[in-house]
Amino acid sequence: MEDLKSAGIELVINKKDWAAWARDMEEFNFQMTWAAWSMGVFKDPEGMWSSKEAQRKGGSNITGFMDPVVDELIETQKKIFTVNERNEIYRKIDPIIYQAYPYVLLWNINYVRLLYWNKFGTPTTVLSKYGDERSAYWYWWLDQDSVADLHDAMGKKSFLPQKGPVVLFDNM
User: Fold this and answer.
1) Residue 165: its pLDDT value, please?
2) In the structure, how many helices (H) and strands (E) does the chain have?
3) Beta bridge partners of 142
4) Percent of the chain residues past pLDDT 90, beyond the cut
5) Does 95 share its domain with 133?
6) CB distance 66 to 51 below 8 Å
7) Model-level pTM?
8) Bridge partners, 141 (sequence order)
């Protein structure tokens, strides 16, 4: 904060609950916010980057981004059903958006950290390839042998052996 102040920038952080944040987002009542987005397996840039979405309350184009070239590319990609060809169009869209700086990009890790009581059975892939840590709700199960091992280790104040290898989807 002191570095900002010395540069003549005043930063005011307003902490809000989800409902208040969402309301402000819908009304475009913010100068800067933090938001995280993800994309499905098949990309569709229209919601986030189309000019017609820029003023729609409750939409995903929260920055109000508008660019006629991007709009034209978005319309073009709608008529293409080959994934590689669509990806080529997205590669044309990306630098246009990047040059406009609608977002300050944050660093992300390319892995998931999990902390849990070691009482579950898991598939060999642990999580879904295209989901996130929430896929554990559907893929994991309560394993009675692991529950017994956990209780035994807690009673003895000892460690459980590590289960399973590291899963790297790119190597599968």
Assistant:
1) 64
2) 7, 2
3) 120
4) 43
5) no
6) yes
7) 0.58
8) 121
Cβ-in-10-Å burial (0-12, 13-18, 19+) of 50 comes to: buried
CA atoms within 13 A on the CB side of 165: 7
Q: Which residue has the higher pLDDT, 79 or 164?
A: 79
Cβ neighbourhood burial of 70 (10 Å; 0-12, 13-18, 19+): buried
Reduced to 3 states (helix: H, G, I; strand: E, B; else coil), residue 35 is coil
Lowest mean per-residue pLDDT among 38-52, 117-131, 157-171: 157-171
Assess if residue 50 is contained within a domain. Answer: yes
User: How far is the CA of 57 from the CAs of 23, 28, 38, 124, 130, in angstroms?
Assistant: 9, 8, 20, 43, 29
In a domain, 161, yes or no: yes
Tokens of 54: 């820029």
Domain presence at residue 159: yes
Q: Please name the residue that has the structure tokens 């059975």.
A: 121
Q: Write 132-135 long-range contacts (CB < 8 A, 24+).
A: 132/38
Q: Domain span at residue 154?
A: 120-171
Q: What is the pLDDT of residues 15-53, one digit of tens each?
A: 899 999 989 988 888 888 888 777 667 788 999 999 999
pLDDT of residue 117: 85
In terms of phi and psi (left: phi > 0; alpha: psi -120 to 50; beta: otherwise), the region of 4 is alpha
Instruction: With respect to residue 154, please indicate whether it lies within any of the assigned structural domains.
Output: yes
Strands (E), 7-158: 120-121, 141-142
Please tell me the total number of residues recorded for the chain in this structure.
172
